[in-house]
Specification:
The chain has about 140 residues and is mainly α. The chain is built from 6 helices and 3 strands. The protein has a single domain, classed as Arc Repressor Mutant, subunit A (Orthogonal Bundle). Helix content is about 65%, strand content about 10%. A hairpin with a 7-residue loop joins strand 2 and strand 3. InterPro entries: HTH_MarR-typ, Tscrpt_reg_MarR-type_CS, WH-like_DNA-bd_sf, WH_DNA-bd_sf.
Length: about 140
């Protein structure tokens, strides 16, 4: 099987192109695609660090580094729960809220661009197929050696 005949090749290439496009736009706002995604996923009443790790699918060390950079940049602040010192929530600063709006606007604009160029049937088929690939991926039994 040739690489360009595999599903995972196209998934990777498409995601890299989407990510690169977002990074180019985000750089104009002084952030990265990953930081924009993080900002979009922090709720007004704070979001637990553990929830952010799950959303981003990153390891604790990478998340910690990203949160430290975001805190140093004045985008977020962290608070430890009074009842459970192990529980930490992340909150947006006013500057973080401003950058979150910019990130959200970019996502909305990009999706509008795609939606204008894909028919409803194409979008529904794509989403359905991606959902199925995700389910199959999660159910895939690793080969035993």
């Amino acid at each position: 099987m040739k690489q360009k005949e595999t599903v995972d090749y196209f998934l990777k290439i498409v995601w890299q192109n989407v990510s690169n496009t977002y990074n180019q736009v985000a750089a104009g706002f002084g952030i990265t695609q990953a930081i924009g995604y993080m900002l979009i996923n922090i709720e007004a009443d704070g979001t637990a660090v553990s929830a952010l790790a799950g959303l981003l699918g990153v390891k604790a060390t990478s998340l910690s580094r990203m949160l430290n950079n975001m805190e140093e940049s004045g985008l977020i602040y962290r608070e430890t729960s009074e009842g459970d010192k192990r529980s930490v929530k992340v909150y947006l600063t006013p500057f973080g809220i401003e950058k979150r709006k910019l990130a959200r606007d970019v996502v909305v604009s990009f999706n509008e661009y795609l939606n204008e160029r894909l028919s409803l049937k194409e979008r529904e088929q794509l989403i359905s197929t991606l959902e199925k690939i995700n389910q199959l991926t999660l159910a895939y039994p690793p080969a035993k050696k």
